[in-house]
Amino acid sequence: MGWAARFLTAVSFLAAGVLFAPDALLLQGRPGAAVAAAARLAHVLAMATAWGAGLWVTFIGGILMFKHLPRHQFGSLQGNMFKAYFMLKSVCLAISVAAFAYLHPWRTASTVERYQLGFLIAALGCDLSNVLVFTPMTIEEIMMKRHKIEKDLGIGSEIGYSRNPEFAKTNPALGAMNRKFGRIHSLSSLANILAFGGLAMHSWYLASKLDL
Fold it and tell me: Are 130 and 193 in contact (CB under 8 A)?
């Protein structure tokens, strides 16, 4: 099944889901109810997508790939995946921020709602910093150059560990590249985990609104 077919299937199930949510249909008589219902749906779906992507990439997928792929292959895959990952999360968080701001305008929002909007905006800012700054620097300016140095030294094909520190002791260029990569990668990881933390804090707010 191709991407388009999978997407259409998912949209079809989403559309059919309204038949099993009669409460959403009953609200249509109220002014603006349809728009509010659409905003709530967009917020929940975007939040769930960002949360799921963050959970998988940060705590599961990256670790599995590191343990089972040659290190240079792992780095190249991560580099391409991170571009899509942070872009996806940024789009989802932008949707969540817009939907939440529509449902809870700042002037009439409670203190709790304003905090929640702040968490979402902060998470969006962290992911945008990765999209616009840290990921391009890590991949284009550092990782590719470091891979070239390592290939010249005959390393980079090891799986689950790295011989880089051993060679960096006697190769000043590689050592300098490692330090620069470490600084930028640490900032990127920090921004990623802060964004995930913002989503985690907002999940408690959403859970408090559920009446199952």
Answer: no
